[in-house]
Structure formats: structure tokens, C-alpha cells
Amino acid sequence: MTIGKHIHERVLLFLNHAKSTEDIINPNVVQDHQGNGYTIGREVAQRLLDKRDKLPGKRFSSINQVLSVAGFGTDKLKDLAHSVAIPAAKHFRGKMYEYVILENWELEHHTVRFDNRKNFLEITQNITHLTTWVGMQVELMAVPKLGSPKAARLANLLLQKSQPEFFPDAHYGSFAFALWFYQFDADNWFGFEKVRLVIEEYLSYYTSHAHRLEFCLFRGFENEGVLVNAVTRPDLPVVVNYGEQEISIWTAQLND
Q1: Domain boundaries along the sequence of the chain
Q2: H or E, element range at 197
Q3: Which residues, including other chains, have CB under 8 Å from residue 191's CB and lie 6 or more apart?
């Protein structure tokens, strides 16, 4: 497992938020399919807390500070990363089902990861290139739904005619994304602020600007009958994740 700087950031955030050794030993995390998790004992956990509390601001600011703790080496760092570095989109979807929406919702994301940083930036730094790319992904997503390559191509063309609106700030983006959810059913049981806070946590998943998440709403694109079949809303939410070099296209439907 290669540990990128964005994963280091998640590890530091986890350790800085830990209030006790129990938080470090038994975090509420998701293991991988092989059951991999990390094995930090109570003594090492206490050393981590002691080290942290002696640092300026009582917080770790670099992964080297963590690795300097006796008993915590690169193997434990990799194990810890397995547990706390859940992909942002997966983490958000889980939080939505845990705290906001019920099983009558279908919330899904079509996520593409780019191995080449240059290709990723060429698409995400140019709104025309991003629109073209999203349209191609919509076409791929629509084929199994529509059963017709020609109809899927039309969906692509309709996406090209939509109006992309960027929200690079996580706080403002959370309002736009939450309003999209809320308009499914304004009388639904969850409150606007409840869903907005979960979304802001998603869009703030990484704290550094280099690893930021940006929200884009393709206004005017009709989802119903193209990407989903039940109750949905016009407009297409897209999240650009610089930390993980991923672009996620979100769809949702309410099966009342």
C-alpha cells in the first residue's frame, strides 16, 4: 500500500482527535475485505498521546513526529492507514445512511480515479474539459439504464447543454448540495441543516488546499429516466477530489 500525503493527513487528523487510548485502540472504522485493521497496543497508544501533548498546540503536525514514537513504525502506519483512510465518497455515503436517509433512498456514486496527475488536472482545471468528461461518463452510465447506445449518446449531449456551477468552498458547496437533496421532498423527515452538516464534513474531508474537494452542480440536466428511475431532482452533482485524484458523479432517488 502506497501512503499518499492525503492519507497522512487523515492519520494525523485521527490521532489529533483521539481523546483516550481507547479511541486509538478501538476506533469506529471499516476494515478491508480481508479483515485488515491495525494492531496498536495500549502502551503505544499512550506513548502517542504523551508525545502529542508535548508538541506545540498539543497536536501532531507531521507524520515524522508520529513515526518517532517508540513502537510505532511504518508497518503500524500502513495498518492504521487501512483503517482510517476510508475514501471520501464511501465515507460520505455511509454517513448519509447512518444519520440522514433511510433505506427507501438509493444514493450512489460513479467514481473514477486517475493514476496520472497531469491527466486529472487537465480535466479538472478546465470547465469545458470537465463538462466533456462528465458527459462521456453519463453516456456510459446511461447505456444499461436506457438499453440503447443512441439514447445514451443523447443523454451526453443534454449534459453538454447544462450549466456547470462550481463551489470551491466546502461551506458554500454544502448549501448547494444540501438544497439539491432537500428538494426531493421538502416535507421529508430530515432537516436541511442535518444533511448540510454531513455534506460539509464530506467536502472538508481533507484540510489542505492541495487535497481539497470541490463541488460542481450541472444545472438543468434531467436525471429521471436517464440515470435513475424513481423520484429525483434535475441537476447533476459532481465532486472533484484532489486528494484522491478522483471525480465522483452522484445520483439519488427516493422510492416512495
Answers
A1: 5-84, 88-254
A2: helix 192-203
A3: none
First vs last C-alpha separation in the chain? 42
Residues 147-177: pLDDT tens digits?
899 999 999 999 999 999 999 999 999 999 9
Beta-carbon contacts of 127 under 8 Å, excluding residues fewer than 6 positions away, are 164, 166
What cell was used for 64?
Answer: 515524522
For the full predicted model, state whether its pTM sits above 0.85.
no
Whose grid coordinates read 432537516?
A: 191
Total number of residues shown for the chain:
256
Distance, in Å, from the CA atom of 99 to the CA atom of 249, rounded to the nearest integer, reads 21
Helices 5-17 and 74-84 pack at an angle, to 10 degrees, of 80
State the CATH class of domain 5-84: mainly alpha
- HEC string of 206-249? CCCHHHCEEEEEEECCCCECCCECCECCCCEEEEEECCCCEEEE
Residue 52's identity, in one-letter code, is R
